[in-house]
Design brief:
- InterPro entries: MFS_4, MFS_trans_sf.
- With 387 residues, the protein is mostly helical.
- It has 14 helices and no strands.
- The protein has a single domain, classed as Growth Hormone, Chain: A (Up-down Bundle), CATH 1.20.1250.
- 75% of the residues lie in helices and 0% in strands.
């Protein structure tokens, strides 16, 4: 089968698992709040449960080395994303949504790590490394899709339960289309359990990725709610989330066009982190202009930053790529988990997200500053980046 077809299937898998399975909560947030199912503090805890599940799935993925383990987690994650999204149709209240979001967090992490490990070697072998990088535009287009569906639901006056059902049916259709074409692990080449490389270099990058997860996740989680509050629930508020997804996909495209160079990767990464910091601070303005800037400046570097982190990990620790990916994804998940918890505390004690946004933007500035101290590069790795 053509590698291009398998890469397209990988793209759609991430579009479904991440865009729908993981990030569908964001456009649903205004509905759940307006229906009285949860308040803003509970919303932060539900988001934290989703990211806790993502952390659990990322850590578990580090131990998937055999053909059966990899294939099982990939298919299990895809099916769980579909089934748990469909089950959300019957969810009502805090605990049911919390448990379902935890499950989709685990499932989406399984899909992400397995697709990363399978699609990138496939792209390299096919001589199309840039197509391998573009696989990671899938989550951005998935976010665009969930945002447009939320906009249509709002215009039609539908409730959150109906939108969950629509998301689930769309995810099921996408999964059934790609199942025969998903990349398959090599039966004869179990994943290495060798160390990931220089522990200091990966730990340094892990701290940067943790701070990035903390910084981006608050606007990414509450963007729709902030827009809904600004526009008093009008349909224009539903445009912000799909625009965020479109900007994220375009950011991946732009970064994939750069010529990989170990001497410049960290500067690109620094720029994306500080760009996001400006976007987070712009959200503090509390008006439409601030939210537009937040969408552009947080959206464009969103997935591109993840690409650059993984590219940097290949440069500083070229051996044990799957283990490096798992470790970095776990650090990223811890940062994401901290963000919604911080948002809940911020809302509980101050009545808003302003303190949390301030700390998030400061974390992104610090993450960029950590790159001023370069890690030693072992190999000039020309392979495409993966998330």
């Amino acid at each position: 089968m053509s590698p291009l077809i398998r890469l397209l299937a990988s793209f759609i898998a991430l579009m479904m698992a991440m865009g729908i399975g993981r990030f569908a909560l964001t456009p649903q947030m205004p509905h759940l709040l307006s229906e009285g199912q949860i308040d803003l503090t509970a919303a932060g805890l539900i988001a934290a449960a989703n990211y806790l599940g993502y952390f659990v799935g990322a850590v578990d993925s580090m131990f998937a080395r055999s053909h059966h383990h990899i294939r099982g987690r990939l298919l299990g994650g895809l099916w769980l994303c579909v089934l748990l999204t469909l089950a959300s149709f019957w969810a009502n209240g805090f605990w049911s949504h919390l448990l379902l979001r935890f499950g989709t967090g685990v499932a989406s992490a399984w899909v992400l790590v397995m697709i990363t490990g399978l699609s990138q070697p496939l792209a390299i072998a096919a001589g199309r490394p840039r197509l391998g990088a573009l696989v990671f535009a899938g989550p951005g287009l998935g976010i665009l899709l969930t945002g447009l569906l939320a906009l249509a639901s709002n215009l039609l006056g539908e409730d959150s339960a109906t939108l969950w059902l629509v998301y689930g049916v769309v995810a099921l259709g996408m999964l059934l289309v790609i199942l025969p074409f998903l990349p398959k692990p090599d039966r004869g080449a179990p994943q290495s359990s060798a160390p990931a490389g220089r522990n200091g270099s990966i730990a340094h990058l892990g701290w940067i990725y943790l701070l990035y997860g903390l910084g981006y996740i608050i606007p990414a989680t509450f963007l729709s709610q902030m827009a809904s509050a600004q526009f008093k629930g009008a349909w224009q508020a539903d445009l912000f989330w799909p625009c965020f997804g479109l900007a994220a996909a375009l950011g991946v495209l732009l970064v994939s066009l750069r010529k990989p160079n170990p001497d410049t990767t960290r500067y690109w990464l620094m720029a994306t982190l500080w760009m996001q910091a400006i976007g987070v601070f712009a959200c503090l303005w509390g008006n439409g202009v601030g939210l537009v800037l937040g969408v552009l400046l947080c959206g464009l570097p969103f997935l591109a930053c993840m690409q650059l982190v993984m590219q940097r990990s290949r440069e500083v620790a070229p051996h044990g790529a799957q283990r490096s990916t798992g470790l970095l994804t776990a650090c990223f998940a811890l940062g994401q988990l901290s963000g919604p918890l911080l948002a809940s505390l911020s809302n509980h004690f101050s009545g808003g997200l302003q303190p949390a946004l301030t700390l998030a933007g400061s974390g992104l500035i610090l993450a960029g500053a950590l790159l001023l101290r370069p890690a030693q590069v072992k190999v000039d790795c020309r392979a495409p980046v993966s998330r």
